[in-house]
Write a structure and sequence with these properties.
This protein has about 475 residues and is of the alpha/beta class. It has helices at about 15-35, 50-65, 90-100, 100-105, 125-130, 150-160, 205, 215-225, 250-260, 280-290, 305-310, 315-330, 350-360, 390-415, and strands spanning about 40-45, 70, 80-85, 110-115, 140, 160-165, 185-190, 190, 210, 230-235, 265-270, 295, 335-340, 365-370, 420-425, 430-435, 440-445, 455-460, 465-470. The N and C termini lie far apart (about 45 Å). The structure holds S-adenosyl-L-homocysteine, iron/sulfur cluster (SF4) and FE3-S4 cluster.
Protein backbone atom coordinates (compact mmCIF):
# COMPACT_ATOMS: atom_id res chain seq x y z
CA UNK A 1 0.00 0.00 0.00
CA UNK A 2 1.43 3.46 -0.87
CA UNK A 3 2.48 5.42 2.22
CA UNK A 4 -0.19 8.10 1.74
CA UNK A 5 -2.93 5.45 1.99
CA UNK A 6 -1.78 4.20 5.39
CA UNK A 7 -4.65 4.55 7.86
CA UNK A 8 -4.37 5.22 11.59
CA UNK A 9 -5.02 1.57 12.48
CA UNK A 10 -2.61 0.08 9.91
CA UNK A 11 0.45 -1.47 11.51
CA UNK A 12 3.48 0.05 9.76
CA UNK A 13 5.55 -2.18 7.53
CA UNK A 14 8.64 -1.54 9.71
CA UNK A 15 6.81 -2.93 12.76
CA UNK A 16 6.08 -6.18 10.91
CA UNK A 17 9.71 -6.33 9.79
CA UNK A 18 10.77 -5.98 13.42
CA UNK A 19 8.46 -8.84 14.36
CA UNK A 20 10.02 -11.08 11.71
CA UNK A 21 13.40 -10.28 13.24
CA UNK A 22 12.07 -11.25 16.67
CA UNK A 23 10.76 -14.50 15.16
CA UNK A 24 14.28 -15.28 13.87
CA UNK A 25 15.77 -14.50 17.30
CA UNK A 26 13.19 -16.69 19.04
CA UNK A 27 14.00 -19.46 16.59
CA UNK A 28 17.68 -19.32 17.52
CA UNK A 29 16.88 -19.50 21.24
CA UNK A 30 14.53 -22.45 20.67
CA UNK A 31 17.08 -24.28 18.51
CA UNK A 32 19.69 -24.15 21.24
CA UNK A 33 17.13 -25.01 23.94
CA UNK A 34 15.82 -28.09 22.11
CA UNK A 35 19.13 -29.15 20.56
CA UNK A 36 18.00 -28.48 16.99
CA UNK A 37 14.89 -30.65 17.30
CA UNK A 38 11.68 -28.76 16.47
CA UNK A 39 9.70 -28.00 19.64
CA UNK A 40 5.98 -28.78 19.41
CA UNK A 41 3.04 -26.42 19.78
CA UNK A 42 -0.53 -27.31 20.69
CA UNK A 43 -3.05 -24.63 19.67
CA UNK A 44 -6.70 -24.83 20.67
CA UNK A 45 -9.31 -22.38 19.46
CA UNK A 46 -12.55 -21.55 21.24
CA UNK A 47 -15.23 -19.36 19.66
CA UNK A 48 -16.09 -18.15 16.20
CA UNK A 49 -14.47 -18.40 12.74
CA UNK A 50 -12.79 -15.05 13.39
CA UNK A 51 -10.87 -16.74 16.17
CA UNK A 52 -10.12 -19.77 13.99
CA UNK A 53 -8.69 -17.41 11.39
CA UNK A 54 -6.62 -15.58 14.01
CA UNK A 55 -5.24 -18.93 15.19
CA UNK A 56 -4.14 -19.72 11.63
CA UNK A 57 -2.09 -16.52 11.70
CA UNK A 58 -0.67 -17.29 15.15
CA UNK A 59 0.33 -20.74 13.89
CA UNK A 60 2.01 -18.95 10.99
CA UNK A 61 4.16 -17.02 13.48
CA UNK A 62 4.87 -20.16 15.50
CA UNK A 63 5.98 -22.04 12.38
CA UNK A 64 8.28 -19.14 11.56
CA UNK A 65 9.80 -19.48 15.05
CA UNK A 66 10.54 -23.12 14.27
CA UNK A 67 7.65 -24.84 16.03
CA UNK A 68 6.10 -28.04 14.74
CA UNK A 69 2.52 -28.89 15.72
CA UNK A 70 0.84 -31.63 17.72
CA UNK A 71 -2.73 -32.59 18.67
CA UNK A 72 -1.51 -34.28 21.85
CA UNK A 73 -1.29 -31.75 24.64
CA UNK A 74 1.09 -33.86 26.79
CA UNK A 75 3.61 -33.83 23.93
CA UNK A 76 3.57 -30.07 23.56
CA UNK A 77 6.36 -27.70 24.56
CA UNK A 78 4.09 -24.73 23.96
CA UNK A 79 0.33 -24.63 24.64
CA UNK A 80 -1.83 -21.80 23.32
CA UNK A 81 -5.55 -21.36 24.02
CA UNK A 82 -7.29 -18.78 21.86
CA UNK A 83 -10.33 -17.91 23.97
CA UNK A 84 -13.91 -16.69 23.46
CA UNK A 85 -15.97 -14.50 25.78
CA UNK A 86 -19.31 -14.51 24.00
CA UNK A 87 -21.25 -16.63 26.52
CA UNK A 88 -20.74 -17.92 30.06
CA UNK A 89 -20.38 -21.46 28.73
CA UNK A 90 -17.40 -20.56 26.52
CA UNK A 91 -15.82 -18.69 29.44
CA UNK A 92 -16.25 -21.64 31.85
CA UNK A 93 -14.83 -24.10 29.35
CA UNK A 94 -11.65 -22.05 29.05
CA UNK A 95 -11.13 -21.94 32.82
CA UNK A 96 -11.80 -25.70 33.03
CA UNK A 97 -9.22 -26.37 30.33
CA UNK A 98 -6.63 -24.05 31.86
CA UNK A 99 -7.06 -25.73 35.25
CA UNK A 100 -6.46 -29.12 33.62
CA UNK A 101 -3.05 -27.90 32.37
CA UNK A 102 -1.62 -27.65 35.89
CA UNK A 103 -0.88 -31.37 36.43
CA UNK A 104 0.39 -31.68 32.84
CA UNK A 105 2.86 -28.87 33.42
CA UNK A 106 3.95 -30.43 36.71
CA UNK A 107 5.18 -33.39 34.67
CA UNK A 108 6.79 -31.09 32.13
CA UNK A 109 8.04 -27.95 33.89
CA UNK A 110 9.55 -26.44 30.71
CA UNK A 111 6.15 -26.24 29.05
CA UNK A 112 5.18 -22.67 28.08
CA UNK A 113 1.49 -21.91 28.53
CA UNK A 114 -0.10 -18.97 26.74
CA UNK A 115 -3.67 -17.62 26.71
CA UNK A 116 -4.95 -15.13 24.17
CA UNK A 117 -8.08 -13.95 22.41
CA UNK A 118 -11.29 -12.26 23.46
CA UNK A 119 -11.42 -13.30 27.13
CA UNK A 120 -7.96 -11.90 27.70
CA UNK A 121 -9.21 -8.44 26.73
CA UNK A 122 -11.38 -8.49 29.86
CA UNK A 123 -9.58 -7.10 32.87
CA UNK A 124 -11.39 -9.28 35.41
CA UNK A 125 -10.24 -12.34 33.46
CA UNK A 126 -6.54 -11.52 33.08
CA UNK A 127 -6.40 -10.32 36.70
CA UNK A 128 -7.74 -13.70 37.78
CA UNK A 129 -5.17 -15.50 35.62
CA UNK A 130 -2.41 -13.32 37.04
CA UNK A 131 -3.44 -14.06 40.61
CA UNK A 132 -4.68 -17.64 40.60
CA UNK A 133 -2.96 -19.36 37.67
CA UNK A 134 0.77 -18.77 38.23
CA UNK A 135 1.71 -21.55 35.79
CA UNK A 136 0.45 -19.47 32.85
CA UNK A 137 3.49 -17.79 31.23
CA UNK A 138 2.03 -15.51 28.59
CA UNK A 139 -1.28 -13.66 28.25
CA UNK A 140 -2.16 -11.40 25.35
CA UNK A 141 -5.34 -9.87 23.99
CA UNK A 142 -6.78 -9.66 20.50
CA UNK A 143 -4.82 -6.50 19.68
CA UNK A 144 -1.39 -8.08 20.13
CA UNK A 145 -1.60 -10.77 17.45
CA UNK A 146 0.95 -9.09 15.20
CA UNK A 147 3.41 -8.88 18.12
CA UNK A 148 3.58 -12.57 19.05
CA UNK A 149 7.28 -13.02 18.08
CA UNK A 150 8.31 -10.14 20.35
CA UNK A 151 6.20 -11.46 23.24
CA UNK A 152 7.51 -15.00 22.81
CA UNK A 153 11.07 -13.78 22.67
CA UNK A 154 10.49 -11.90 25.93
CA UNK A 155 9.11 -15.02 27.62
CA UNK A 156 11.95 -17.19 26.33
CA UNK A 157 14.72 -14.80 27.38
CA UNK A 158 13.40 -13.45 30.67
CA UNK A 159 11.67 -16.56 31.99
CA UNK A 160 9.20 -14.10 33.53
CA UNK A 161 5.45 -13.98 33.03
CA UNK A 162 4.36 -11.59 30.27
CA UNK A 163 0.96 -9.86 30.13
CA UNK A 164 0.14 -7.79 27.04
CA UNK A 165 -3.49 -6.76 27.36
CA UNK A 166 -3.64 -3.26 25.93
CA UNK A 167 -7.22 -2.03 25.58
CA UNK A 168 -7.49 -0.02 22.36
CA UNK A 169 -9.47 0.43 19.15
CA UNK A 170 -7.45 -2.22 17.36
CA UNK A 171 -5.11 -2.55 14.38
CA UNK A 172 -4.84 -4.14 10.99
CA UNK A 173 -1.56 -5.88 10.27
CA UNK A 174 -0.85 -7.15 6.76
CA UNK A 175 1.96 -9.57 6.11
CA UNK A 176 1.53 -11.97 9.06
CA UNK A 177 2.41 -15.50 7.91
CA UNK A 178 -0.57 -17.89 7.79
CA UNK A 179 -0.57 -21.61 8.45
CA UNK A 180 -4.00 -22.78 7.31
CA UNK A 181 -5.89 -25.66 8.90
CA UNK A 182 -7.29 -26.95 5.63
CA UNK A 183 -6.31 -26.91 1.99
CA UNK A 184 -9.67 -26.69 0.24
CA UNK A 185 -11.65 -24.54 2.70
CA UNK A 186 -10.29 -21.12 3.60
CA UNK A 187 -11.18 -18.35 6.03
CA UNK A 188 -10.58 -14.87 4.70
CA UNK A 189 -10.99 -11.98 7.16
CA UNK A 190 -12.12 -8.79 5.45
CA UNK A 191 -12.67 -6.66 8.55
CA UNK A 192 -12.17 -6.71 12.30
CA UNK A 193 -14.00 -5.32 15.33
CA UNK A 194 -17.56 -4.15 15.69
CA UNK A 195 -19.29 -0.80 16.28
CA UNK A 196 -22.82 -2.02 16.78
CA UNK A 197 -22.94 -2.53 20.53
CA UNK A 198 -25.95 -4.84 20.55
CA UNK A 199 -26.91 -4.57 24.21
CA UNK A 200 -26.19 -8.23 25.07
CA UNK A 201 -22.87 -8.56 23.25
CA UNK A 202 -19.30 -8.46 24.51
CA UNK A 203 -17.66 -8.51 21.06
CA UNK A 204 -17.30 -4.71 20.57
CA UNK A 205 -15.53 -4.49 23.97
CA UNK A 206 -13.01 -7.22 23.24
CA UNK A 207 -12.44 -6.74 19.52
CA UNK A 208 -12.23 -2.96 19.24
CA UNK A 209 -13.69 -0.67 16.61
CA UNK A 210 -14.81 -1.76 13.19
CA UNK A 211 -12.01 -1.52 10.61
CA UNK A 212 -11.73 -2.97 7.12
CA UNK A 213 -8.78 -4.50 5.33
CA UNK A 214 -8.05 -2.84 2.01
CA UNK A 215 -9.79 -4.49 -0.94
CA UNK A 216 -6.36 -4.88 -2.51
CA UNK A 217 -5.16 -7.02 0.43
CA UNK A 218 -8.36 -9.08 0.52
CA UNK A 219 -8.38 -9.77 -3.22
CA UNK A 220 -4.68 -10.68 -3.15
CA UNK A 221 -5.33 -13.20 -0.38
CA UNK A 222 -8.35 -14.59 -2.26
CA UNK A 223 -6.12 -15.10 -5.32
CA UNK A 224 -3.52 -16.86 -3.19
CA UNK A 225 -6.16 -19.18 -1.72
CA UNK A 226 -7.57 -20.04 -5.13
CA UNK A 227 -4.12 -20.60 -6.63
CA UNK A 228 -3.33 -23.02 -3.79
CA UNK A 229 -6.44 -25.09 -4.59
CA UNK A 230 -8.98 -23.66 -2.17
CA UNK A 231 -12.57 -24.45 -3.25
CA UNK A 232 -14.61 -22.77 -0.54
CA UNK A 233 -13.72 -19.29 0.69
CA UNK A 234 -15.59 -17.69 3.58
CA UNK A 235 -15.24 -13.93 3.92
CA UNK A 236 -15.28 -13.03 7.60
CA UNK A 237 -16.37 -10.02 9.64
CA UNK A 238 -18.85 -9.26 12.42
CA UNK A 239 -20.89 -7.19 10.00
CA UNK A 240 -19.65 -7.72 6.45
CA UNK A 241 -22.35 -5.48 4.97
CA UNK A 242 -20.63 -2.44 6.40
CA UNK A 243 -17.26 -3.32 4.82
CA UNK A 244 -15.37 -0.08 4.07
CA UNK A 245 -18.23 2.02 5.40
CA UNK A 246 -15.80 4.67 6.63
CA UNK A 247 -13.58 4.95 3.57
CA UNK A 248 -16.08 4.09 0.85
CA UNK A 249 -13.10 2.52 -0.94
CA UNK A 250 -15.08 -0.51 -2.21
CA UNK A 251 -18.46 -1.77 -1.00
CA UNK A 252 -19.03 -5.34 0.13
CA UNK A 253 -21.20 -6.04 -2.91
CA UNK A 254 -18.39 -4.81 -5.19
CA UNK A 255 -15.85 -6.92 -3.29
CA UNK A 256 -18.01 -10.02 -3.82
CA UNK A 257 -18.17 -9.23 -7.51
CA UNK A 258 -14.39 -8.78 -7.75
CA UNK A 259 -13.70 -12.11 -6.07
CA UNK A 260 -16.38 -13.77 -8.16
CA UNK A 261 -14.49 -12.61 -11.26
CA UNK A 262 -11.28 -14.43 -10.30
CA UNK A 263 -10.77 -17.45 -12.57
CA UNK A 264 -11.23 -20.88 -11.03
CA UNK A 265 -13.76 -23.36 -9.74
CA UNK A 266 -14.58 -22.26 -6.20
CA UNK A 267 -17.38 -21.04 -3.95
CA UNK A 268 -17.63 -17.83 -1.97
CA UNK A 269 -19.46 -17.61 1.35
CA UNK A 270 -19.56 -14.80 3.87
CA UNK A 271 -20.50 -14.21 7.47
CA UNK A 272 -21.89 -12.44 9.30
CA UNK A 273 -24.43 -10.32 7.51
CA UNK A 274 -26.27 -7.87 9.73
CA UNK A 275 -29.93 -7.32 8.73
CA UNK A 276 -29.59 -3.62 9.59
CA UNK A 277 -27.01 -3.15 6.80
CA UNK A 278 -28.11 -5.86 4.38
CA UNK A 279 -29.40 -4.27 1.17
CA UNK A 280 -31.37 -5.40 -1.86
CA UNK A 281 -28.26 -4.41 -3.86
CA UNK A 282 -26.25 -7.05 -2.00
CA UNK A 283 -28.93 -9.67 -2.67
CA UNK A 284 -28.96 -8.72 -6.36
CA UNK A 285 -25.17 -9.09 -6.43
CA UNK A 286 -25.40 -12.52 -4.81
CA UNK A 287 -27.98 -13.55 -7.38
CA UNK A 288 -25.75 -12.35 -10.22
CA UNK A 289 -22.49 -13.91 -9.03
CA UNK A 290 -22.41 -17.59 -9.94
CA UNK A 291 -19.61 -18.43 -7.50
CA UNK A 292 -21.35 -16.88 -4.49
CA UNK A 293 -23.14 -19.63 -2.58
CA UNK A 294 -26.90 -19.54 -2.39
CA UNK A 295 -26.53 -19.39 1.36
CA UNK A 296 -27.25 -16.39 3.54
CA UNK A 297 -26.51 -16.43 7.25
CA UNK A 298 -28.66 -13.55 8.50
CA UNK A 299 -29.01 -13.54 12.30
CA UNK A 300 -32.28 -12.00 13.47
CA UNK A 301 -31.89 -12.74 17.26
CA UNK A 302 -35.57 -12.07 18.06
CA UNK A 303 -38.83 -11.90 16.12
CA UNK A 304 -40.34 -9.26 18.40
CA UNK A 305 -39.92 -5.55 17.73
CA UNK A 306 -39.79 -4.46 21.37
CA UNK A 307 -37.07 -7.00 22.13
CA UNK A 308 -35.15 -6.05 18.98
CA UNK A 309 -35.20 -2.44 20.12
CA UNK A 310 -33.93 -3.38 23.59
CA UNK A 311 -31.21 -5.42 21.92
CA UNK A 312 -30.23 -2.32 19.91
CA UNK A 313 -30.34 -4.27 16.68
CA UNK A 314 -31.47 -1.41 14.44
CA UNK A 315 -34.12 -3.24 12.36
CA UNK A 316 -37.65 -4.51 12.78
CA UNK A 317 -39.29 -7.86 12.17
CA UNK A 318 -40.93 -6.32 9.08
CA UNK A 319 -37.60 -5.13 7.63
CA UNK A 320 -36.11 -8.58 8.24
CA UNK A 321 -39.02 -10.32 6.54
CA UNK A 322 -38.82 -7.96 3.58
CA UNK A 323 -35.13 -8.87 3.11
CA UNK A 324 -36.00 -12.56 3.24
CA UNK A 325 -38.84 -12.09 0.78
CA UNK A 326 -36.56 -10.27 -1.65
CA UNK A 327 -33.78 -12.85 -1.26
CA UNK A 328 -36.23 -15.63 -2.07
CA UNK A 329 -37.55 -13.70 -5.05
CA UNK A 330 -34.14 -13.16 -6.67
CA UNK A 331 -32.70 -16.54 -5.53
CA UNK A 332 -35.56 -19.08 -5.28
CA UNK A 333 -33.06 -21.74 -4.12
CA UNK A 334 -31.59 -19.58 -1.31
CA UNK A 335 -30.78 -21.37 1.94
CA UNK A 336 -31.17 -19.22 5.04
CA UNK A 337 -29.60 -19.73 8.44
CA UNK A 338 -29.69 -17.56 11.54
CA UNK A 339 -28.70 -16.95 15.16
CA UNK A 340 -31.32 -16.53 17.86
CA UNK A 341 -31.22 -15.53 21.51
CA UNK A 342 -33.89 -16.98 23.80
CA UNK A 343 -34.72 -15.28 27.10
CA UNK A 344 -33.25 -11.80 26.60
CA UNK A 345 -33.84 -9.80 29.85
CA UNK A 346 -37.52 -8.89 30.14
CA UNK A 347 -38.63 -11.02 27.19
CA UNK A 348 -42.13 -12.43 27.80
CA UNK A 349 -43.48 -15.74 26.56
CA UNK A 350 -45.71 -13.91 24.05
CA UNK A 351 -42.69 -12.04 22.71
CA UNK A 352 -40.75 -15.29 22.47
CA UNK A 353 -43.64 -16.74 20.41
CA UNK A 354 -42.95 -14.02 17.82
CA UNK A 355 -39.53 -15.64 17.34
CA UNK A 356 -41.20 -19.02 16.76
CA UNK A 357 -43.65 -17.54 14.27
CA UNK A 358 -40.76 -15.88 12.43
CA UNK A 359 -38.84 -19.11 11.97
CA UNK A 360 -42.04 -20.76 10.73
CA UNK A 361 -42.57 -17.96 8.22
CA UNK A 362 -38.99 -18.04 6.91
CA UNK A 363 -38.31 -21.81 7.03
CA UNK A 364 -34.58 -21.68 7.81
CA UNK A 365 -32.25 -24.50 6.80
CA UNK A 366 -30.69 -24.50 10.26
CA UNK A 367 -30.36 -22.30 13.32
CA UNK A 368 -27.84 -21.48 16.01
CA UNK A 369 -29.97 -20.96 19.10
CA UNK A 370 -28.59 -19.61 22.38
CA UNK A 371 -30.05 -18.95 25.79
CA UNK A 372 -29.22 -15.38 26.80
CA UNK A 373 -26.04 -15.20 28.87
CA UNK A 374 -25.27 -11.97 30.78
CA UNK A 375 -21.84 -10.51 29.94
CA UNK A 376 -20.15 -8.23 32.43
CA UNK A 377 -19.95 -4.64 31.20
CA UNK A 378 -22.72 -4.87 28.58
CA UNK A 379 -25.93 -2.85 28.83
CA UNK A 380 -28.22 -5.89 29.03
CA UNK A 381 -26.30 -7.30 32.00
CA UNK A 382 -27.85 -4.64 34.22
CA UNK A 383 -31.42 -5.08 32.92
CA UNK A 384 -33.97 -6.86 35.14
CA UNK A 385 -34.23 -10.49 34.11
CA UNK A 386 -37.18 -12.09 35.92
CA UNK A 387 -37.64 -15.26 33.85
CA UNK A 388 -36.09 -18.36 35.44
CA UNK A 389 -33.36 -20.38 33.75
CA UNK A 390 -35.74 -23.33 33.80
CA UNK A 391 -38.44 -21.45 31.86
CA UNK A 392 -35.88 -20.22 29.37
CA UNK A 393 -34.82 -23.85 28.94
CA UNK A 394 -38.44 -24.77 28.14
CA UNK A 395 -38.72 -22.00 25.56
CA UNK A 396 -35.43 -23.09 24.06
CA UNK A 397 -36.74 -26.65 23.62
CA UNK A 398 -39.98 -25.32 22.13
CA UNK A 399 -37.99 -23.39 19.55
CA UNK A 400 -35.72 -26.34 18.79
CA UNK A 401 -38.73 -28.59 18.26
CA UNK A 402 -40.35 -26.10 15.90
CA UNK A 403 -37.09 -25.89 13.89
CA UNK A 404 -36.77 -29.69 13.77
CA UNK A 405 -40.17 -29.90 12.09
CA UNK A 406 -39.16 -27.25 9.55
CA UNK A 407 -35.83 -28.97 8.87
CA UNK A 408 -37.51 -32.36 8.45
CA UNK A 409 -39.90 -30.91 5.89
CA UNK A 410 -37.05 -29.18 4.02
CA UNK A 411 -34.86 -32.29 4.05
CA UNK A 412 -37.73 -34.44 2.76
CA UNK A 413 -38.12 -32.05 -0.18
CA UNK A 414 -34.47 -32.60 -1.09
CA UNK A 415 -34.94 -36.35 -1.66
CA UNK A 416 -34.73 -37.16 -5.36
CA UNK A 417 -32.89 -33.92 -6.21
CA UNK A 418 -29.26 -33.63 -7.32
CA UNK A 419 -26.86 -31.15 -5.70
CA UNK A 420 -23.30 -30.04 -6.33
CA UNK A 421 -21.42 -30.99 -3.21
CA UNK A 422 -17.90 -30.27 -1.96
CA UNK A 423 -16.52 -33.47 -0.37
CA UNK A 424 -15.11 -32.65 3.05
CA UNK A 425 -14.57 -35.85 5.06
CA UNK A 426 -14.38 -39.58 4.64
CA UNK A 427 -15.10 -42.13 7.37
CA UNK A 428 -15.14 -45.83 6.62
CA UNK A 429 -16.09 -45.47 2.96
CA UNK A 430 -18.69 -42.78 3.68
CA UNK A 431 -18.05 -39.28 2.37
CA UNK A 432 -19.67 -36.15 3.79
CA UNK A 433 -20.07 -33.07 1.70
CA UNK A 434 -21.76 -29.72 1.83
CA UNK A 435 -24.19 -28.31 -0.73
CA UNK A 436 -24.07 -24.75 -1.91
CA UNK A 437 -26.77 -24.03 0.71
CA UNK A 438 -24.52 -25.54 3.41
CA UNK A 439 -26.53 -28.74 3.92
CA UNK A 440 -24.51 -31.89 4.70
CA UNK A 441 -25.09 -35.06 2.66
CA UNK A 442 -23.48 -38.49 3.26
CA UNK A 443 -22.69 -40.78 0.34
CA UNK A 444 -20.41 -43.73 -0.48
CA UNK A 445 -16.95 -42.89 -1.82
CA UNK A 446 -13.29 -42.83 -0.93
CA UNK A 447 -10.69 -40.35 0.30
CA UNK A 448 -9.63 -39.41 -3.22
CA UNK A 449 -12.78 -37.27 -3.51
CA UNK A 450 -11.91 -35.02 -0.57
CA UNK A 451 -11.65 -31.40 -1.67
CA UNK A 452 -13.48 -32.07 -4.96
CA UNK A 453 -16.92 -31.06 -6.21
CA UNK A 454 -19.25 -33.91 -7.18
CA UNK A 455 -22.93 -34.13 -8.13
CA UNK A 456 -24.86 -36.09 -5.54
CA UNK A 457 -28.44 -37.32 -5.81
CA UNK A 458 -30.22 -37.43 -2.46
CA UNK A 459 -31.79 -40.86 -2.05
CA UNK A 460 -33.00 -40.86 1.56
CA UNK A 461 -33.57 -38.70 4.59
CA UNK A 462 -33.48 -40.10 8.12
CA UNK A 463 -33.56 -37.91 11.26
CA UNK A 464 -32.44 -34.91 9.18
CA UNK A 465 -29.42 -36.82 7.92
CA UNK A 466 -29.43 -36.88 4.15
CA UNK A 467 -27.84 -39.71 2.25
CA UNK A 468 -27.25 -40.01 -1.44
CA UNK A 469 -25.03 -41.26 -4.22
CA UNK A 470 -22.61 -39.70 -6.67
CA UNK A 471 -24.20 -39.38 -10.13
N1 LIG B 1 -21.78 -10.31 14.56
C1 LIG B 1 -22.73 -11.36 14.57
C2 LIG B 1 -22.73 -12.18 15.83
C3 LIG B 1 -21.51 -12.59 16.52
S1 LIG B 1 -21.73 -13.39 18.05
C4 LIG B 1 -24.12 -10.77 14.39
O1 LIG B 1 -24.35 -9.63 14.69
O2 LIG B 1 -24.99 -11.52 14.01
C5 LIG B 1 -22.57 -14.86 17.53
C6 LIG B 1 -23.90 -15.06 18.14
O3 LIG B 1 -23.78 -15.27 19.53
C7 LIG B 1 -24.86 -13.89 18.05
O4 LIG B 1 -25.50 -13.82 16.80
C8 LIG B 1 -25.84 -14.15 19.16
O5 LIG B 1 -26.92 -14.95 18.72
C9 LIG B 1 -25.00 -14.94 20.16
N2 LIG B 1 -24.71 -14.14 21.36
C10 LIG B 1 -23.95 -13.04 21.45
N3 LIG B 1 -23.94 -12.57 22.72
C11 LIG B 1 -24.73 -13.40 23.43
C12 LIG B 1 -25.14 -13.45 24.81
N4 LIG B 1 -24.75 -12.53 25.67
N5 LIG B 1 -25.95 -14.46 25.19
C13 LIG B 1 -26.37 -15.39 24.30
N6 LIG B 1 -26.01 -15.39 23.03
C14 LIG B 1 -25.22 -14.41 22.57
FE1 LIG C 1 -22.16 -8.46 18.72
FE2 LIG C 1 -24.03 -7.06 17.53
FE3 LIG C 1 -21.49 -6.69 16.86
FE4 LIG C 1 -22.75 -8.93 16.18
S1 LIG C 1 -23.24 -6.88 15.46
S2 LIG C 1 -20.71 -8.76 17.07
S3 LIG C 1 -24.09 -9.28 17.90
S4 LIG C 1 -22.42 -6.22 18.83
FE1 LIG D 1 -16.11 -15.34 20.83
FE2 LIG D 1 -14.51 -13.34 20.30
FE3 LIG D 1 -15.66 -14.66 18.32
S1 LIG D 1 -16.00 -13.42 21.91
S2 LIG D 1 -17.58 -15.35 19.21
S3 LIG D 1 -14.22 -15.50 19.74
S4 LIG D 1 -15.22 -12.48 18.39
Amino acid sequence: MPKSDVRAFDVPFEQLKKQREYAALARTVLESRYGGKAPLAYVHTFGCQGNVSDSERMKGWLAQMGYGFTDVIEEADFVLFNTCAVREHAHDRVFGNVGALKPIKQNKPDMIIALCGCMMQQEHVWQKIKKSYPFVNLVFGTHALHRIPELMYKVLCSGKRVFEVENCDGYIAEGIPVRRDGSFKGWLPIMYGCNNFCSYCIVPYVRGRERSRSSQAVIAEARELIASGCKDITLLGQNVNSYNRESGEMSFAQLLEEINNIDGDFRIRFMTSHPKDCTFELLDTMARCEKVSRHLHLPFQSGNNRVLKEMNRGYTREKYLSLVEYAKKVMPDISLTSDIIVGFPGETYEEFRDTVSLIEAVEFTSLFTFIYSPREGTKAASMPDPISREDKGKWFRELTLAQEKIAAKRSQKMVGQTYRVLCEECNGGLLSGRTDGSVMIDFPGDESYIGRFVDVKVTACRNWTLSGEIV
